[in-house]
Amino acid sequence: MSSTPKPPGGLVWFDEPPPPQATEQLSRERIVAAAIALADEDARGEITMRAVAARLGSRSPMALYRYVGSKDGLTDLMVDEVYGEITVPTPGDWRTCLRELGTSAWAAVRRHPWFARLAFSRPPFGPRALAVYDAALAAVDDLHLDAATRIGFVNTVLGQVLASGLAMLEERATRERSGLHTEEALAEAARPYLARIAADGRYPHYAKWLADRNPGRDPEVPTFEQLLEWQLDGLAKLAATSRGR
């Protein structure tokens, strides 16, 4: 009889033995903290077990595996640690609760841009992640939506957070690679290309948008907060339609 399939590498909370007793140098908590600090410092948010070991003063990366199981296990622990920075208010007005979920998660992603990438790579089954999802689902419980729509409300908000975070992570890596670290430097580098596009004539609506822009006064793109409000407006209409059925 075949066994139940597991995620590659297993899940550190369910499929790995408990970590050994902490030493003066190593513990699960110290390893996770060091890995997060390294990921925060790297433009792409990438780490190696060797780099984590070096940060902790350990001679061998293999010593870390006794505490985290595998590189996937460390990823699970890092992601769940950031989920612990996300707050959802006590259930009340569902829109207020989901707005706080979005803004709190966005603040966490801005502190740890790599989270937006790694959150997609592993199941959100850690205790802190489950607490966030449980609180968010409690916020929409009184809407009496079906199960798929309830989780859809939560994932619409978290999806916007993670999509915006991925864009931020890629932009950060591009800035690091190109050396264009300021908005002014990016605008100056793009200026000759935008002028050629505007003069081309094949993209009239894009050219009109370029002409209508006021970079000195208007933001180039909507803020995260504006995008979140648009998402919540759509969810409010869906909730109202569901009540009327």
From TrEMBL:
Signal peptide: none
Keyword Transcription annotated: yes
Domain Tetracycline repressor TetR C-terminal intervals: 91-237
Keywords annotated in UniProt: DNA-binding, Transcription, Transcription regulation
InterPro entries: Homeodomain-like_sf, HTH-type_TetR-like_transc_reg, Repressor_TetR_C, Tet_transcr_reg_TetR-rel_C_sf
Region (Disordered): 1-23
Family annotation (SUPFAM superfamilies): Homeodomain-like, Tetracyclin repressor-like, C-terminal domain
Record's protein name: TetR/AcrR family transcriptional regulator C-terminal domain-containing protein
Organism encoding this protein: Saccharopolyspora thermophila
